[in-house]
Automatic annotation (TrEMBL):
<dbReference type="GO" id="GO:0016787">
    <property type="term" value="F:hydrolase activity"/>
</dbReference>
<protein>
    <recommendedName>
        <fullName>Calcineurin-like phosphoesterase domain-containing protein</fullName>
    </recommendedName>
</protein>
<dbReference type="InterPro" id="IPR036907">
    <property type="entry name" value="5'-Nucleotdase_C_sf"/>
</dbReference>
<dbReference type="InterPro" id="IPR014485">
    <property type="entry name" value="Pesterase_C1039"/>
</dbReference>
<dbReference type="Pfam" id="PF21953">
    <property type="entry name" value="NadN_nucleosid_C"/>
</dbReference>
<dbReference type="InterPro" id="IPR004843">
    <property type="entry name" value="Calcineurin-like_PHP"/>
</dbReference>
<feature type="region of interest" description="Disordered">
    <location>
        <begin position="468"/>
        <end position="487"/>
    </location>
</feature>
<dbReference type="InterPro" id="IPR006179">
    <property type="entry name" value="5_nucleotidase/apyrase"/>
</dbReference>
<feature type="compositionally biased region" description="Polar residues">
    <location>
        <begin position="497"/>
        <end position="506"/>
    </location>
</feature>
<dbReference type="InterPro" id="IPR029052">
    <property type="entry name" value="Metallo-depent_PP-like"/>
</dbReference>
<feature type="domain" description="Putative 5'-nucleotidase C-terminal">
    <location>
        <begin position="349"/>
        <end position="608"/>
    </location>
</feature>
<feature type="region of interest" description="Disordered">
    <location>
        <begin position="561"/>
        <end position="588"/>
    </location>
</feature>
<feature type="region of interest" description="Disordered">
    <location>
        <begin position="497"/>
        <end position="524"/>
    </location>
</feature>
<feature type="domain" description="Calcineurin-like phosphoesterase">
    <location>
        <begin position="22"/>
        <end position="246"/>
    </location>
</feature>
<dbReference type="Pfam" id="PF00149">
    <property type="entry name" value="Metallophos"/>
</dbReference>
<keyword id="KW-0732">Signal</keyword>
<dbReference type="InterPro" id="IPR053828">
    <property type="entry name" value="Nucleosidase_C"/>
</dbReference>
Length: 659
């Protein structure tokens, strides 16, 4: 772990259900190679993962089973170690390649920009050679200018100890936001291709493995499942997915399941399959390949307490020299990028989903009521503006205390600036936010335009496939009353962070085993999936997560009381109420005739669609860039320096902020 990472906390654990064939799965790492430095539950780094995998591989070799490591993409964007280096990714590829990943693919973040797709071409693909699969992804070769598969389409291999013959494919979902140098072929077209049809005709396989940067409940995986199952009625099919940033497990049938392993190095997914018939291990009782199969999953919290326990090691025996070297390399990259540099001290926690919106501790309320109106200036003092941001542009929480260079990129890694359209009739402009939030016929008519893409990934997943994942009910103050009759969030607080009340940091696993007192449950993930509620390795007290709107809006140049909010009601409003929008409040200043509409560049397509629906025709050519394209990330950091900045901070991340 990194030197400043909090010590892990003892907690009751479920064992790893080790089997004949075992997997470790990472996804959506988004550059969190250093682990979480403010959350004890996820405080292990990539070096620790290297040591952990080594111990599990040794175990497999010792008992004649197999272990396969899978990563399903989005390794980049979302952490200062990637986003603040010049060139971006300077350290990422070197760190990633230290782990022996047996099956790896691209996510959509690798493809948003031509440079990062080229980064895959020049670094990740050669680093992982035959282990990188690109079943539906092509790239323009930067050397020749010709189009070619980014990597091989599929592969067949035999596991080392069990001799299991595996046919593997590596997909990405039907992503359309990629730069011009890559081509994502829709899955429905890929399954019709000759090479795919030929590949799945192969009967000399014991297991088919489909991994990809694809939501496991998506149409893409449903189609791959049915197509493969049609060709293989009894071959086990294992899926690994990603993209939606959640822990999830889906059962297709008794011989086919899918695992998704969260985000940001919070989770190491573990999967095992037993009962696979191989040429070496014939099942004597049946001629079917799948009847005695047993699939089991576990979501491991990425911390040393879990890793020591599951590998049967302790603080002394766990770290390998290789793992320690990688941890050191991450530390020196962080130092060279000055990631502990403090811009200011956050006076309170600000959450993406762990508080309702609006709320004093909602990061979106902070943006809407403080940061945006106090940062964004209208073109001239007589002009008013409405500033719209998509909630998906904000990637992580702010914790009370030092707001560092690390925090800056964890919260807002993207380079997007603020675009604006001048002098839009106010009657239409004020309705855009409500249209974006409650969608409507245009915004949900195609996948491409679907406004749920404005949300953070976990919420996109909930909106599209898992309606019950987040709480949309109004908060009931009587549930956890404090003295003011307000919700007492201390009682549902994270607990996974460094400051964890009376939790005892754990330095030695044996210390915990000797104790007779069961430790109090730490709040954390309590996953409910198709196999039940026993998937998490760590038994946690639940945390409440709340719905957020697609977009929030701040009013610039209006008197504070004159605009009535973001139009973010979560009810399914009918056509008449889609267009209510942010209304002037009676008795305040008169409505302007025109305003500028300002928005995060990323959402331009949706803003233009909404305006068109409201009868105002604008195109991308009509938009201008605020302050020469200054990124929202920099706008936010300037605000933090101006409002939360303190004089006497040092750069080690400790001193300077009141506790
Ligand atoms: N420049 C960008 C890029 C992405 N977003 C938001 O992120 C979501 C996708 O995230 P994944 O990690 O799941 O790929 C996307 O839906 C947007 O909400 C953004 O705001 N700006």
């Amino acid at each position: 772990a990194q030197p400043s990472a909090p010590d892990p906390v003892a907690a009751p654990l479920r064992e790893l259900p080790w089997g004949q064939l075992n997997f470790l799965h990472t996804t959506d790492i988004h550059g969190w190679w250093g682990g979480h430095l403010q959350e004890a539950s996820y405080s292990s780094d990539w070096g620790d993962y290297i040591s952990f995998a080594k111990h599990l591989r040794d175990r497999a070799d010792a008992d004649g089973t197999d272990l396969i490591l899978v990563d399903t993409g989005d390794r980049i964007e979302g952490n200062a170690i990637y986003d603040s280096s010049k060139p971006r990714g300077k350290f990422t590829y070197e760190i990633a390649k230290e782990q022996t990943i047996d099956l790896i693919c691209s996510g959509n973040h690798e493809l948003y920009k031509a440079e990062s797709a080229d980064g895959e071409f020049y670094h990740t693909v050669p680093d992982f050679k035959d282990n990188y699969l690109a079943s539906n992804l092509d790239i323009i070769n930067p050397e020749t200018g010709g189009r070619q598969p980014l990597a091989q389409r599929y592969k067949k291999f035999t596991t080392k100890n069990q001799g299991i013959r595996i046919l593997a494919f590596g997909f990405i979902f039907d992503f359309t936001g990629n730069d011009k140098n890559t081509f994502v072929q829709r899955v429905e077209d890929t399954v019709k291709e000759e090479w795919f049809r030929e590949a799945i005709k192969d009967k000399e396989v014991d297991l088919i493995l489909v991994y990809g940067h694809v939501d496991i409940r998506s149409q893409e995986y449903a189609l791959l499942y049915s197509t493969i199952r049609d060709a293989h009625w009894d071959t086990p099919i294992q899926f690994f997915g990603g993209h939606s940033h959640i822990r999830d497990y889906h059962i297709f049938d008794s011989g086919s399941v899918a695992l998704e392993s969260g985000r940001y190095m919070e989770t190491l997914g573990f999967m095992s399959i037993s009962g696979i018939t191989t040429s070496r291990h014939q099942n004597p009782n049946t001629n079917s390949k799948k009847r005695t199969l047993q699939f089991q999953r576990r979501y491991i919290d990425n911390n040393l307490f879990s890793m020591h326990h599951h590998s049967g090691k302790n603080a002394t025996t766990f770290p390998t020299q290789h793992g320690l070297n990688v941890s050191l390399a991450i530390g020196s990259a962080r130092k060279s990028l000055s990631l502990n540099h403090i811009y200011g001290c956050a006076p309170r926690d600000l959450f993406v989903s762990r508080r309702p919106y609006p709320h004093n501790e909602s990061i979106f309320t902070w943006l809407e009521t403080e940061l945006l109106p106090q940062s964004i200036k209208s073109r001239d003092p007589s002009k008013k503006a409405l500033v719209i941001m998509n909630t998906g542009g904000i990637r992580f929480d702010v914790f009370k205390g030092p707001f560092t260079k690390d925090t800056k990129f964890l919260v807002s890694p993207f380079t997007s600036g603020i675009a604006y359209l001048k002098d839009v009739p106010y009657t239409a402009a004020k309705r855009v936010i409500k249209l974006l939030n409650n969608a409507g016929p245009i915004l949900s008519s195609t996948n491409d335009a679907n406004a749920t893409f404005l949300l953070p990934p976990e919420h996109v997943a909930a909106a599209r496939y898992r309606p019950h994942l987040f709480d949309s009910s109004p908060t009931d103050p009587s549930e956890h009353p404090n003295q003011d009759g307000m919700l007492d969030f201390a009682s549902v607080d994270l607990g996974t962070r460094q400051h964890q009340g009376n939790q005892q940091p754990l330095r030695d696993t044996h210390h915990h085993h000797a104790s007779t007192e069961p430790p109090p449950l730490i709040p954390g993930y309590t996953t409910h999936d198709d196999a039940g509620s026993d998937g998490d390795d760590t038994i946690h007290a639940p945390i409440q997560f709340y719905n957020v709107p697609n977009c929030i809006q701040a009013a610039v140049g209006f008197s504070p009381a004159s605009v009535s909010g973001s139009g973010s009601s979560s009810d399914s409003a009918g056509p008449d109420s889609w267009v209510d929008g942010a209304e002037m409040v009676d008795g305040d200043e008169s409505e302007p005739e025109v305003v500028d509409i300002m928005y995060n560049e990323f959402i331009e397509k949706w803003v233009l669609l909404a305006l068109a629906y409201l009868g105002e025709s604008y195109s991308a050519e009509d938009s201008h860039l605020y302050e020469d394209g200054k990124s929202f990330t920099d706008i936010m950091t300037d605000w933090v320096e101006g409002h939360w900045g303190v004089d006497d901070v040092d750069d080690d991340g400790e001193a300077g902020c009141p506790s």
